[in-house]
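Hi C.,

You asked whether I'd gotten around to modeling the 429-residue construct. I have! Everything is below, sequence then structure, no commentary in between.
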Amino acid sequence: MLRTDPNPPTVPTTARDVSVFGDGIAYFNEAAELLQLERSMRAILTHPSRQIIFSIPFQRDSGEFEVYTGYRVQYNFARGPVKGGIRYHPGVTLDEVTALAFWMTWKCAVVDLPFGGAKGGVTCDPSKLSDSELERITRRYAAELVEVVGPDKDVPAPDVGTNSKTMAWFMDTYSMHMRQTVPGVVTGKPLAIGGSKGRVEATGRGVTIIAMDEMENMKIKPSQTKVIIQGFGNVGMWAARLFAQRGCKIVGISDVTGAYYNPKGIDLDKAIELAEKDHNLAAFRGGDKISNAELLVSECDVLVPAALERVLTSENAPNIKAKLVVEGANGPTTPDADHILNERGITVIPDIMANAGGVTVSYFEWVQDKMGYFWKLNEVNERLEDTLITNFHELRAIANRHRIPYRTAAYMVAIDRVVQSLKLRGVYA
């Protein structure tokens, strides 16, 4: 019996009523104006190369069949094969996936990786699916994309709702179709099948590396710094660990169960233990229970939004108390909020720079898979820090020279690099 999901995942109001991709275009246009980018280039760079939508029939453990919707957007190939995660979430839409692929294009370019941007996803709630059901969805998703992905075409990675196990299933499915093992088709894999050391913590590590460098630039001492991290998944959890290791005090964390604030400092060991055991913070008692909305405007020096898009808006931006906002998530700040924060003198390090640690180590994994030779953890971390700091300092120099926000400077750097590639290659028409 084949049927569609009788209780299809609810799409959040923000995904229905606003365009996440529109936010990305707004940021692009600001930088394009400063670069005096010609109309033809703007037209090319504001349209995705390919958008793929397909049905995913799969069998539930009960024996019944259901059908979900899968997406893959390959935004721009000018600098190389495209790169981007696969997201399993009820709010996945074509608009969201297109926006994320758009941001991945600039994220890869701003840290000077030889990749274009892509993103994929399935509109589903992984928390309501068994491992065997997730495996069947993943294998069908991979099979639908066999002709358009590959180490030299499109290299997926984990994102919200997916992990190294998901990547192993994807790699195996692709390899079965190719009749040979192809570890380089995805990154974020388990170490035993071609993954890279340092990949799991790379995004959170990158957030911390960039934040600490900017704190030094702003003369903010780690020992006197209070940090709030909204979102306690892989990125938020690792960022919290690494901020704490560098002497900062974590005063607020959150997940889907709510937010937890303690001005004296969160018991991170207990929070991490609960998050890893229960996959949520519902049982955490190490801070005052407040809403995620309240957490964002609580007292702190550094705020790291590390969950989903559009959490900093024109409504809460006037009340943000942080001196520094470091975007661990993709697209957490709306354009209106960004302008308010800039006017208030709050420094914002944009997502395409702040959370580029993950794609940077994914690039390292891809390189190692191609070589068949793997690096030690300290090599991975040293290369990561060098890549991020080198490019962040270039971005800072441009921001200072033009007296513009970091976000605009980041887009200017990224767009200029993609445009150079496009002009050198020419347009095949």
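If it helps when you're writing up: The first helix runs from residue 13 to 17.

Thanks,
B.
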